[in-house]
Amino acid sequence: MNGDDMDGFLYVDKPVGMTSHDVVAIVKKKLKLDKVGHTGTLDPFASGLMILCVGKATKLAYLFSNCDKTYTGTMHFGVHYDTYDVTGKLLEISDKHIELHEIENAMKSMVGTYNQLPPMYSAIKKDGQKLYELARKGMDIEREKREVHIHSFEITSGLIDNSVNFAVSVSKGTYIRSLAVDLAEKMNHIAALSALKRTKVCDISVLDAHQLDDIKLEDIMPLNTYFKGFPRVLLNDYMINLVRNGVYLDERQLITENPFIVVNEKGDFIAYYEVIEPNKYKPIIVF
Q1: Cβ proximity of 155 and 186 under 8 Å
Q2: What domains are defined for the chain?
């Protein structure tokens, strides 16, 4: 199997201490791949599921951009850091006592939609610069709150040495570091993340991911496997030639509101199309 011919998705279980860029670079070098991208950064502080796009699949990173995500982690009460996690600069300490039931009640109250302030140490851009770059210069600029949704937020351990384990499911764009700070604020307290693992993106689980040390070309999920459950549209040889050249399709071929795969009479996957307006379909990938 030649890496240059591979197009698809690769699920990686990122270790703590490595940037998302590091993961991409390691995979490219180890598997001798030219084009590799990821579908969303994961902090060096965090571990867990990263979805990498290989070859033509780099055009499809957006497919995962609106996904809900699930995390497990640990938060430590009584401390506040500039990064909102324990890797940053310690700004405040509190010896305020807290009970487990207070945390549970606060978590329940946060389930639903709320406006979240992203941390300064984030990859959000302001006037072309990433916030974390500004934060490292000692700047703390005004940020806009973002509407996020917390689907579930639960304790998974007892309260030991002011720390508690949790599991949370959230909408896109939710910062778990900010969630920990906001949770503590509801209790007139302070807290920071001390561990975080991303366990799910859409319906993809970290249990399906591969360790970097063990990764192989065969672990790349081909596009025809990923798209196997998508609707298929059979076209004749004349239309297949047009599809290979990037022709748009319309109501003369089909009427649908959903993405689909064009196949030939042999059942081969030819192209992936998306709806761009009613009865007009654009080729996104030609296989």
Answers
A1: no
A2: 3-65+206-223 (3.30.2350.10), 69-201 (3.30.2350.10), 227-286 (2.30.130.10)
